[in-house]
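Researcher: Here's the sequence for the chain we discussed earlier.
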Amino acid sequence: MKLSQLILLIFFTSHILSQTNLEVTPLFGSIINHSPRVMKTPILDPSYGLKVSYSKRSYSGNTFFKKFRYPEIGASINAARYGNNDIFGNSYGAQAFLNFYLKERKSYSIQLTTGAGLGYQTQTYETTNKLNAFIGSHLNATINVESYLEFKFTKSLNLKPSFGILHYSNGRISHPNLGSNYVYLGLGFSYRKGVFDTSKFRLKEKKITKFKNQLSFSPGLSDKGTYENNNTLPTAMIMYHKNLYTSEFNAFQYGLSAEYKNLDYKENLLKERENIDVAMTFGDEIFFGKTSFQATLGIYLYSISQSKNVVYQRVGINYRLVDFEKIGISIGAQLKAHGGVAELAEGKLSVLF
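Model: Thanks. This is the structure I predict for it:
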C-alpha cells in the first residue's frame, strides 16, 4: 500500500470512528421547594445558569456501547445564580457524563444525558441565619439529568434546546440535607467535529468476567444530629449479592445486607444488637468496561429505627480493579436514601467470585 493511500485510510477511519462536541448552554429556571413544611421561605425569583461541556463519541469494543447506540462520554462545568440570591446563593460544579442517543435522523436527534460530580454552594444553613434549609455544607455531590432535541443548523453547528434538573446533596454527611433541585430550560449551541457512522464497521466484543457471587464491605458516614447540632458518625455495612446475568453488560442481583449504625456513638446507650439493620436486597448493575452503575432496593427484615420506612434505595458507581478467571476485586462509592432523603454516604470494597 502506498503511503498516500495509508494516510487517506487513517484519516477516513478516524472520521468514521470518532466525533468531538463542544457545547455551550445558557440556562433559565427556578429552584423547586420540594419540602415546604421545612423550607418556609418562598422562592419568588428566577435562577440563571451556564453550562459548558466537551464530549467524544467513538467506537468501543464494549457491548454496552453498541447496545445503547454508542453514547458520548464527556465532562462539563456549570455555574448558576439562584433566585432569592441572598439566601440560596450561587452554585458551581463539575461533572462526568454519558449522553445517550434515543433517536437519530439526518436533520435532528433526541438525546438524554446523565451525569454526576462535585459542586460548591456559596450559601448554607449556617451562613444564612438558618434560612436556607436545603443545604448544610458548601461541598456537595451533584447529579444532572437533561433531555435534548438537537437540530442540525450547519455542517458542524447545531442548535440544542433542552430541559433538565441539577441536584445538589451532601449525602447527609452534614445536616440539613434536603438537597437543592434546580429545574431549568436550556438553549445550547454545539460544535461537532468529525463524522460518526456506526454502519461502517462491526463490533468486536470485549467481555467482562461473569462472577456469580459478590461480597461487599462499605464504611460510611451519616449525620445523626440536628440542624443546630451536627453529629457525624461512622457506619459499616456488609452485603452479599447473587449475580444473574441477563446480557453481556447487565446483571440482576439479590441478596442480604447487614448494617451497623451507632446512633449513640458517644453515650453508648443502646445495646449492640439495637444498632443493626438487616435487609433483603434486589438490584441491577450495568457494566461498560471496568466501570459499572448499580442500583439496589432493600426491604428491611429488622430495622434499628422501627420507623415507617420499610424500604431503602442505594445507588453507586463501581470500578473493577482485578478481573482474574476465578476472582475479582472492585471499589466504589454509593449513597443510601429513603425516598428522596439521603441517609448516608459510603465507600465500597467488593470481592467477586
